[in-house]
Amino acid sequence: MSNKAVQHTCVFGMGWGDEGKGKLVDLLYPAFHAVVRFNGGANAGHTVCVGKEKFALHLLPTGVLHESAVGVIGPGVVVDPIGLLEEIDGLAARGINVSPKLKISQRAHLVMPYHKAEDNLSEQNATGATRIGTTARGIGPCYADKMRRTTAIRFIDLLNDENLEARVRELSQKRAAALKAIYGDDGGLDIESIVRDVLLAKKRLSSNICDTTSFLHETINAGQAILFEGANGILLDIDHGTYPFVTSSSTGPHGIGPGAGVPPACVTRYIAVTKAYSTRVGSGPFVTELKDDIGDRIRKAGNEFGTTTGRPRRCGWFDAVSSRYARQITGATDIALMHLDTLSGFDEVGVCVAYRHEGKTLTTMPTDAATLEQCEPVIEYRPGWHENLRTVRRYEDLPQTTRDYVEHIESLVGAPVSILGVGPDRSQTLIRGPLKDSIDVPEPASL
Ligand code: IMP
């Protein structure tokens, strides 16, 4: 039993998603009783390696891969029930039975096939400037129904609504007709198969649906620690991201209140995850994007292809302006700087320290996507490193140039880099500073 103080913790992305949050949550989970998703849906993609096995999770909280942690899907998550069942069955086929320790909030909303159809049709019919480049997982249309209220379906409805079947049929028919009227195409929706799938979800998931809010409060009262797993990233946040090229939820610690039903003040450790460079998938401004062979080199070395959609990710130098912004609005207490090993082999590495717009130097993020699109990065180059970092297990053993790079990022962003990723495996993670003494994580396996 650990004698370390219980600290509820939030891990979230500091950029446009894909920062390596899954790997980090997977590393930290032994210190926590419950791992909670509080936002987004199957747009997220977390790749986790357990032993020699690689798992891609979209809806399941990462901690459920392991015996000890309870996985919670909170009220703020939008869940494609069939996608969730496929994930559960996929893991079962590999010998991992997550069902007994999975809790789905009664308040969470169902992503329906007509949400996905609408997401697809709206993207296909958008012109270049208005195409968001979504993951086509129906996230935006489902959150829109949630806000509209009268057309939404929640997990509690699977338990309590005596007219569920008729309601699903009616909502699906109406939506198919609306899509046909708007786009001249109903997206190939098969109403009876939608009804069957909802009834299947009711049958198979009913025992997992519960009041997760009460469960989390009981966990807190019992003195057990909770890990909140943010999906997507701050720059994709519906309020604070590069709107409209964002997702439809609150992607950082500010999403914990509405998305999990826990007062954010309970959470005292906020770990912002970023990479040693920047990436983005989908459309939208990306000031430090490298459309040259350096970008290609980073993409290849970092295997920067989407977990959810397989799309190549856009790559660029580390952006200290957007990262500082993300730190400010989230109150990040620690930074996890992942993929440092990917930058090995460059003679020099760049960091964006400011933006240039219409002859002015900006050190804060402009609000408007169009302005951001016109910004030029002010890049400061520093000496790179050629050593292979993957065998390094202590911060002090990193090359001096790598440490200088890390410490420069700390001073620009304004929070300590407490975690460093030096390779894809769980053991290739270095923890330094006060965090090391305040959290129980297994010692990295020796090589
Ligand atoms: P949506 O969340 O599918 O509506 O997509 C909106 C935007 O967010 C698109 O640019 C997506 O590529 C992006 N996005 C959403 N979730 C993730 C993620 O987990 N990683 C990277 N990009 C994401």
Written description of the protein model:
The protein has two domains: 8-94 and 212-437, Adenylosuccinate Synthetase, Chain A, domain 3; 109-208, Adenylosuccinate Synthetase, subunit A, domain 2, CATH 1.10.300. The protein is 32% helix and 20% strand. It contains 14 helices and 20 strands. A hairpin with a 7-residue loop joins strand 19 (417-421) and strand 20 (429-431). Helix 3 crosses helix 4. The protein starts with 7 loop residues before the first strand and ends in a 9-residue tail after the last helix. The model has no long low-confidence stretch (mean pLDDT 93). Bound molecules: inosinic acid. The site of inosinic acid has 21 residues, from helix 4.
Please give the count of helices.
Answer: 14
Global structural class: alpha/beta
Beta-strand segment tally = 20
- Proportion in β-strands: 15-25%
Give average pLDDT, whole number.
93
Q: Major beta sheet, specifics?
A: 10 strands, mixed
Order of strands in the sheet with most strands: 9-7-5-2-10-1-11-15-19-20
CATH architectural arrangement of the largest domain? Alpha-Beta Complex
What integer value in Å does the Rg equal? 22 Å
* Shape annotation: globular
Q: What is the CATH homologous superfamily assignment of the largest domain?
A: Adenylosuccinate Synthetase, subunit A, domain 3
Poorly predicted ranges (pLDDT <50, ≥5 residues)? none
Helix content: 25-40%
